[in-house]
Write a structure and sequence with these properties.
Layout: H1 13-20, H2 28-46, H3 48-65, H4 77-90, H5 92-104, H6 114-121, H7 124-136, H8 140-151, H9 156-163, H10 167-185, H11 192-199
Helix pairs in contact: 2-3, 2-4, 3-4, 4-9, 5-7, 7-10, 8-9, 8-10, 8-11, 9-10
Domain RNA polymerase sigma-70 region: 31-95
Domain RNA polymerase sigma factor 70 region 4 type: 130-180
Family: Belongs to the sigma-70 factor family. ECF subfamily.
Length: 200
């Protein structure tokens, strides 16, 4: 059955991308479907200001690579996350500088006494700062896998697709990342998915 008169919004991602090779304007439907997810991921990785520019870069790269898209992948979201992750890797230096700046601008030490200092250490703000440090201490690959899995709710298979790695590698990276984050936080029972979704 011919779908020559189909509306772009009615097509699956794979077919839409394939058709956008000859109908470039149709690629805008991919942006409309997935931009919010990719933007949220980029905000977590590079901050809200840099995320705006990075989002445009992700879709520009995707548009330029659309002719080589694997149409066996019906959902383009893992592909877009992979492009976004590669762009984030190019911004690692800026990201590390930002984390160091956040640490430097942390709350000033108080002199009121030991009890107040202990109470302050268990506030949400200090926990978030500690989590930022824990995430910064992960290897690039482990951090990418954990952020995509816990922060973006991708399945193991989708993380593997986004990063271009085997499923077994995803599992080992996630296990190692969870263990390291929990050890750094000193809370082996912490639910990393909830925390990463906020701070990843």
């Amino acid at each position: 059955m011919s779908t020559s008169g189909a509306d772009p919004g009615d097509l699956e991602d794979a077919e839409l991308i394939a058709r956008s090779v000859t109908r470039p304007d149709w690629f805008s439907a991919i942006f409309d479907r997935h931009a919010a997810h990719i933007h949220r991921y980029l905000v977590r990785r590079v901050g809200p200001t840099a995320a705006e520019d990075a989002l445009g870069e992700v879709f520009l790269v995707a548009f330029r690579k659309r002719e080589g898209y694997d149409t066996e992948r019906r959902d383009a979201r893992p592909w877009l996350y992979g492009i976004a992750t590669n762009l984030v890797a190019q911004r690692r230096r800026e990201e590390v500088k930002e984390l160091k700046l956040r640490e430097a601008l942390g709350p000033p030490a108080h002199e009121e006494g030991h009890a107040e200092r202990v109470a302050e250490q268990v506030t949400a703000a200090s926990m978030g700062k500690l989590l930022d440090s824990a995430l910064a201490g992960l290897s690039d690959g482990d951090r990418d896998a954990l952020t995509l899995f816990a922060g973006e709710n991708l399945s193991y298979g989708e993380v593997a697709s986004a990063l271009g790695i085997p499923l077994g590698t995803v599992r080992s990276r996630l296990n190692r990342a969870r263990r390291q984050v929990r050890e750094t936080l000193g809370h082996p029972e912490i639910t990393t998915s909830k925390e990463i979704a906020t701070h990843g």
